[in-house]
Amino acid sequence: MIRHVIMWKFVDEYEGMNKDEIMSSIEEKFAYLKAVIPEIKSMSVERDVLRSERSFDMIYITEFESLETLERYRVHPEHVKVAAFIGAVRSAQAVTDSERK
Description:
- The protein contains 3 helices and 6 strands.
- By secondary structure, it is of the alpha+beta class.
- The longest helix is centred in the N-terminal third of the chain and has 18 residues, at 19-36.
């Protein structure tokens, strides 16, 4: 099993949306991805509650059967659209992919 984890910091404002609205939009987009991309075995999207200076705003945790299914997810056209939106609204990102036994 492959665990794919991403953390983001977001800009304060984007096209009239504040940070909370940006995160709500992302949560909706990920719910849609879960419904249309069968390679996703599990998904969790969580917001930071401390909101400290060193905190990231959101964490995204997904699991896949293999590196191959992760790659199919990564290049899926619907995921590419979501990734493009996040690229426009993030100010920082950290990613890790690990193997779970």
